[in-house]
Amino acid sequence: MQKRMGEAVARVARKVNDTVENKTDSLDLANCKLMTFPVGIYKAMRSVTEGIHRISLANNELKSITSRFVTTFSQLRELNLAGNYLHRLPEEITSLLHLRAINLSRNRFRRFPEPLATVPSLETIDLEENEIAEVPTEKLASMASLRSLNLRDNPVGPEVRLLVRPLVPFDLLLSPEEPLPEA
Asked: CA–CA separation, 84 vs 67, rounded Å?
C-alpha cells in the first residue's frame, strides 16, 4: 500500500517538474488518485502558473476544488475535472475570464453549478452523468459565448427539454426521453 502511494506521489512530482522545466501550457494530473490538489504544487509551479492554460485532474478522488486553485491558475482556458466526487464549485470560478471549456462529467452535482453561468468566455460545459434535475434556463440563455451544454444522463426536468433553438444559441445534449411505462 505504502509503495503504491509513494509511486503515485513520485508520478505527480514528475508531471509537475516536466511542466515547470519545459514551460508547457498544460498540467495533466489525471488518474493520480488525488483526494485534494496538493498544496506543494502551488509553490513548485509559482513561476509558471500564469502560463498554464489547460489542467486535467480527471479520474481522481477530488471532493472539492478550492478558491486558491482557481485564483492561482487564473489564465485557464480548459479545465477537466471529469470522474471525481465534486458537488459544487467555488464562487471564484467566475474569475476565470479566459475559461472556454470545463468538463465536470461523472461527478456528484445535484444542481447546475450556477457560477459557471457568469463566466464570460465559456463555450463548452460538460455535465454528463451527474444528478442534475434543475437548470437555470434563463441564465444559460443569456450566456453569449456558450456553444455546447452536455446534460446527458442527468434527471433533468421537462422544462429543460423545451430549450431549443432559437430560444438558446447553443447545442443542448440530452439523453433520449424514457418511454412511459404502459399501464
From this structure: 17
Per the listing, cell 468566455 goes with 121
DSSP structure string for 92-111: GGGG-TT--EEE--SS--SB
Q: Quote the pTM value.
A: 0.90
In Å, how far are 28, 79, 149, 154 from 59, measured between CA atoms?
11, 13, 21, 19
* Peptide bond just before 179 cis, omega within 30 deg: no
Q: Which residues pair with 173 in a beta bridge?
A: 150
Give, in order, the Cα–Cα distances in Å from 132 to each of 1, 27, 111. 36, 29, 5
- For the ranges 39-43, 92-96, 122-126, 163-167, the lowest mean pLDDT is seen at 163-167
Q: Alpha carbon 110 to chain centroid distance? A: 14
Task: Decide: residue 23, CB within 10 A, 0-12 exposed, 13-18 middle, 19+ buried.
Answer: exposed
CA distance 57 to 29: 5
